[in-house]
Design a protein that fits this description.
The complex is a heterodimer of chains A (about 280) and B (about 130). Chain A is of the alpha+beta class and about 280 residues long. In chain A, about 15% of the residues lie in helices and about 20% in strands. Chain A has a nine-stranded mixed barrel. Chain B has a five-stranded mixed barrel. Chain B is an alpha+beta fold and about 130 residues long. The chains are: A alpha+beta (about 280), B alpha+beta (about 130). At the A-B interface, helix 3 of A face helix 2 and helix 3 of B.
């Protein structure tokens, strides 16, 4: 009886060695074959409906999902739900020349447009939230939640220490954000915007005085749901509340997706502009 | 019926790609009138915002036209679908003979958004799927 544990201990030790070897293997340098990133990550394991998750933990790698319509995930709502604009809002909206077709404005060739991101200017908040082509890593750190957006390699700070929103802040591309938990919903409020940034790729508008609210909820292990709200009397005659947007958890790691002006200029001169009949040579 | 549905789906997928492209929208390109060209690769640029393929096309008289194609997916999306920089550059290295289908520039320039690239063996190069 006294020796009956020995085989179990041996098995345990062997398993531990194998486990360590496996761990070491996964952290060992691999040949990336000249690629900027490593091999494609494995898919996430399927969700078990009973799987436990912490609704107050949003950390991980996420990506906004798209749906049937082009505006899904990429814009606050469908066009019929865009609130009426003020005279100022309409004037700014019409001055924005985009290559993205929409029902309220004629599109132009991108070469003749004025979307600020075509010259690597910041997308800013909220537009980063509507970029479905990229991922974002969320972190919980003391007193803050950080959102690291793959697009343009941008970090967003959301203060969770109970501070109040600043009054009369100067404008920033990312605004100034505070957050709090209401039950299992993370409520983020942001003020102090740079109104040169576009809300989305259609050139929708917000002013520096916008109050932007997000209500995030972790629906299951792999799904975040969020509703955005714009209160901006300078631009819209009533609040604009988004559809419920879905973000899905991603495997792998955040990638480098910087906008390098030298690459953007090369693309514009060699592809975008000639496509519209504009030649530089 | 099933075949017709598959063909319709493929057609819709084909025409939807340029719409989803970030910079190259169907404002600049007319993907409803695709052109297929036989060319020889001269350069390939696997960079943001969209990779570019440079290739020469010779007409019957031997006159060569320098073409450029905009690859709608970004490098990030291509790499997620298994087309990283090294594999893509190897498949499209200078001198490679390609058969390429483009949605041509509406301005009539030798530029287009890439719909399909085949190599000499008839294998498809790059994955033209846009982000989900």
């Amino acid at each position: 009886m006294r020796y009956s544990f020995v085989p179990s201990i041996k098995v345990g030790v062997v398993l531990l060695i194998f486990a360590s070897a496996g761990l070491a293997q996964s952290k060992k340098a691999t040949d990336w074959g000249g690629q900027a990133e490593g091999p494609a990550p494995p898919a996430l394991p399927p969700i078990n409906a009973n799987e436990k998750f912490d609704p107050h933990d949003l950390s991980g790698l996420w990506r906004p999902a798209t749906g049937r319509n082009l505006t899904d995930g990429r814009m606050m709502s469908s066009w019929d739900k865009v609130p009426p604009r003020t005279a100022w809002g309409e004037q700014v909206f019409q001055s924005r020349l985009t290559g993205r077709p929409g029902p309220q404005k004629k599109a132009v060739e991108p070469a003749k447009g004025n979307d600020p991101i075509m010259a690597c200017n910041p997308k800013g908040i909220p537009r980063l939230l509507f970029y479905t082509g990229g991922q974002a890593q969320f972190y919980h750190v003391p007193d803050q939640i950080l959102m690291e957006f793959q697009s343009q390699g941008t970090i967003r700070h959301i203060w969770m220490d109970g501070r109040e929103l600043p009054r009369n802040p100067d404008g920033r591309w990312m605004g100034y954000s505070i957050g709090r938990w209401e039950g299992n919903t993370l409520v983020i409020e942001t003020v102090g915007f740079d109104e040169r940034a576009w809300l989305d790729q259609w050139g929708n508008v917000y002013s520096k005085d916008m109050h932007f609210t997000e209500r995030w909820r972790r629906a299951d292990r792999d799904t975040l749901e969020v509703v955005y709200r714009i209160d901006d009397p300078k631009t819209y005659t009533r609040p604009w509340i988004s559809d419920t947007k879905v973000w899905k958890r991603q495997s792998g790691e955040i990638r480098e997706e910087l906008c390098a002006p030298m690459d953007e200029n090369f693309f514009n001169e060699n592809v975008r502009d000639p496509a519209a009949g504009i030649f530089h040579k | 019926m099933q075949r017709a549905l598959i063909l319709l789906s493929l057609f819709l997928l084909l025409i939807s790609i340029p719409v989803l492209a970030h910079h190259g929208t169907n404002i600049s390109y007319d993907s409803s009138k695709p052109v297929t060209l036989k060319g020889v690769m001269t350069d390939f640029n696997y960079k943001n915002p969209h990779p570019q393929v440079f290739f020469d096309v010779a007409d019957e008289s031997g006159k060569v036209t320098h073409w450029v194609g905009e690859v709608a997916p970004t490098p990030f999306t291509l790499s997620q679908h298994g087309w990283g920089r090294a594999r893509s550059a190897e498949a499209l290295k200078p001198g490679t003979k390609i058969t390429i289908t483009l949605g041509p520039s509406r301005a009539g320039a030798p530029v287009g958004v890439v719909l399909k690239i085949l190599n000499e063996k008839g294998e498809e190069i790059l994955d033209q799927r846009a982000p989900e």
